[in-house]
């Protein structure tokens, strides 16, 4: 085998074609609403982590669980990267008519790209939070919120942080 590229071989590198059954695909006995996606800080130095919070509300009639998923997209990169990458997920039980606020950390190493070694690059990133992948064709109503943050500084090896 001479071609080791992942292009067209895994769901992360399909380009514009979405997988038939992406991660998080399925049905629920209730409905959920996402709101108040907050990234802090919105501008961070190259080696810093970003804090994420989002509110999940069970708007249906039944107690249920939701798998909250966070995906990261590089808006520009010096090397090919996935269309988006799963960076966090959590199964959460929410009573009918109730809501919960969830907090996550997206680590600097989760933004690293491979350039003969793991490197961090400055730029703009989009973070998605919801019960499915961004752009996924839905079986039940679900929202995917998005927010952008910027990373400043000079590109450097991950081990230099």
Automatic annotation (TrEMBL):
Keyword presence, Hydrolase: yes
EC number(s) from the headed UniProt entry: 3.2.1.21
Naturally occurring in which organism (per UniProt): Pardalotus punctatus (spotted pardalote)
Classification lineage: Eukaryota, Metazoa, Chordata, Craniata, Vertebrata
Gene from which this protein is expressed: Bgld
GO terms under biological process: carbohydrate metabolic process
Family: Belongs to the glycosyl hydrolase 3 family.
Swiss-Prot/TrEMBL keywords: Hydrolase
Name used for this protein in its record: beta-glucosidase
Entry keyword annotation includes Hydrolase: yes
């Amino acid at each position: 085998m001479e071609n080791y590229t992942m292009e067209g071989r895994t769901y992360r590198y399909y380009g514009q074609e979405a997988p038939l059954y992406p991660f998080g695909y399925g049905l629920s006995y209730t409905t959920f609403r996402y709101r108040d996606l907050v990234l802090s800080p919105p501008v961070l130095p190259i080696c810093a982590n970003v804090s994420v919070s989002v509110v999940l509300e069970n708007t249906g009639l039944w107690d249920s669980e939701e798998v909250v998923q966070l995906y990261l997209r590089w808006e520009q990169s010096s090397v090919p990267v996935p269309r988006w990458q799963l960076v966090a997920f959590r199964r959460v039980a929410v009573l009918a008519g109730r809501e919960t606020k969830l907090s996550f950390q997206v680590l600097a190493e989760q933004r690293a790209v491979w350039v003969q070694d793991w490197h961090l690059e400055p730029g703009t990133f989009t973070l998605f939070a919801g019960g499915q992948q961004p752009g996924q064709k839905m079986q039940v109503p679900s929202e995917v919120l998005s927010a952008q943050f910027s990373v400043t500084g000079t590109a450097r090896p991950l081990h230099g942080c």
